[in-house]
Structure formats: C-alpha cells, structure tokens
C-alpha cells in the first residue's frame, strides 16, 4: 500500500532547497522512489503527451562513472540516487496511444481523437524546433514535480545543469529522440542548504503589461 504523505504543498515548496552535500551510504527504498516518480509523472504536459523519461541510477559504481561527466561534482557520488530527466523530442508519436486509450475508455469520440492527433502532427511538422522546445519545457514540469514529491517524502534534492550532455548520452546509451534536460540528485542532506533570499513578489510580478 502506498505511503500517505499528508504535507501541505506550500509548506513543501518553502522547505525544498537545493542540496549539495549528502549523507553517504544511505539508500532510498525502492517503494519510496517509485512513489516519487509516480507523482512526478502526473505533471502537466502539452496535449498530455508526457514528454519525460526518467533514468534512475542507484548503483554506486554507476554513480561514480557519472563523476567526470558531471565535472567532478561530488554530490552525484554521495547522493542516494541520481535521476536523469530526459525530454522526448518525438512525443507526438505518443499521441495515438494517449488518445486511443481515451477512446477505448469512452472518454472521447474517435473523430475528436483524430482531430487532436492531426493538430499535434501539424504542430510538430510546421513549428520550427517544436520537438526540442516542447521536450525541454514539459520535461521540466516533471522535474520540478519530482523534487517536490521527494521533499514530501523527507528526501532532499539538487538539480544540476552542469554536465557533459554528449558524454552522458554515450554513457547511458540514450536514444537520439531523447535529450538530457536535467540531472537530479536525491538523498538525505548532510548539512542544510545555504540560506537564500528571494526577490519580493512585487519585483517579479508585472500586472497586466509592461
């Protein structure tokens, strides 16, 4: 049975911070990691195409192989797990399956499905770099949701953009259709993250127009 995590979403958002130093040698239970990834996969996505793929790395030797790829940032070795968030540049190819299921479940008429699938194909064919832009944007939704889900389970995280994407692709044998969007470390903080300040809301909000 899934663990019930009754924590205020706002509280989790405020408590989450990026961790760089983790307690070593502590594993995340597979059932907990599964629940975190399951929650991450409920993220919104354009046309519900679910542009994400997660590569989970918990084996210590495999984490150590990531060290040079991540420019020797020690947290990839010390963390309990590393999750590589990939974006699917050909997520439009998922449309038939996604909407076919809706038709079979009685949620949607066949003609509506065909219209939506046609719109998706048109977007991917006619909008320059649509596949790449959509992959990054939508996989990022899932990455943020993953970090929040982890914190709700008492697990810290750290997003990393500093890594050699091509070396990572080669190491993990990532198919061409997927692009690395983010490397996430998960684990239990050895020390609190550095305190940070944030701009006041009035400084980041523009009402109506510039």
Description:
This is NAD(P)H nitroreductase. Belongs to the nitroreductase family. InterPro entries: Nitroreductase, Nitroreductase-like. This protein has 210 residues and is of the alpha+beta class. It has a domain at 23-94 and 128-191: NADH Oxidase (3-Layer(aba) Sandwich). It has nine helices and four strands; from the N terminus they run ααβααβαααβαβα. The protein starts with 8 loop residues before the first helix and ends in a 6-residue tail after the last helix.
Strand content: 5-15%
Number of discrete helical segments: 9
Report the sheet with the most strands, covering strand number, pairing sense and barrel closure. 4 strands, antiparallel
The CATH architecture of the domain at 23-94 and 128-191 would be 3-Layer(aba) Sandwich
Q: Could you spell the SSE succession in H and E letters?
A: HHEHHEHHHEHEH
pLDDT averaged residue by residue: 95
Kindly state the number of beta strands: 4
The rough form would be described as globular
CATH fold name of the domain at 23-94 and 128-191, please? Answer: NADH Oxidase
**Can you list the strand order of the major beta sheet?**
1-2-4-3
Distance N to C terminus = 50 Å
The Rg value, from CA coordinates, equals 19 Å
**What's the CATH first level of the domain at 23-94 and 128-191?**
Alpha Beta
Q: What low-confidence regions span 5 or more consecutive residues with pLDDT below 50?
A: none
Label the structural class.
alpha+beta
CATH superfamily of the domain at 23-94 and 128-191: NADH Oxidase
Pfam families: Nitroreductase (PF00881)
Keywords: Oxidoreductase
Domain Nitroreductase: 14-188
GO molecular function, one term: oxidoreductase activity
């Amino acid at each position: 049975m899934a663990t019930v995590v009754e924590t205020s979403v706002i509280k989790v958002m405020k408590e989450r911070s990026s961790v760089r130093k983790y307690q070593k040698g502590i594993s995340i239970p597979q059932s907990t990691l599964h629940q975190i990834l399951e929650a991450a996969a409920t993220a919104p996505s354009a046309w519900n195409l679910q542009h994400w793929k997660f590569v989970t790395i918990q084996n210590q030797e495999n984490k150590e192989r990531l060290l040079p790829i991540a420019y020797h940032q020690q947290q990839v070795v010390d963390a309990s797990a590393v999750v590589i968030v990939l974006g699917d540049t050909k997520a439009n190819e998922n449309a038939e399956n996604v909407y076919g299921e809706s038709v079979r479940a009685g949620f949607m008429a066949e003609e509506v499905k065909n219209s939506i699938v046609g719109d998706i194909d048109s977007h991917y064919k006619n909008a320059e770099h649509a596949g790449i832009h959509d992959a990054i944007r939508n996989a990022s939704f899932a990455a943020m949701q993953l970090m929040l889900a982890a914190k709700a389970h008492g697990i810290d995280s750290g997003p990393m953009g500093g890594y050699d994407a091509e070396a990572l692709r080669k190491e993990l044998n990532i198919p061409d259709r997927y692009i690395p969007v983010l490397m996430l470390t998960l684990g239990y903080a050895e020390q609190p993250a550095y305190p940070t300040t944030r701009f006041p809301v009035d400084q980041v909000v523009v009402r109506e127009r510039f």
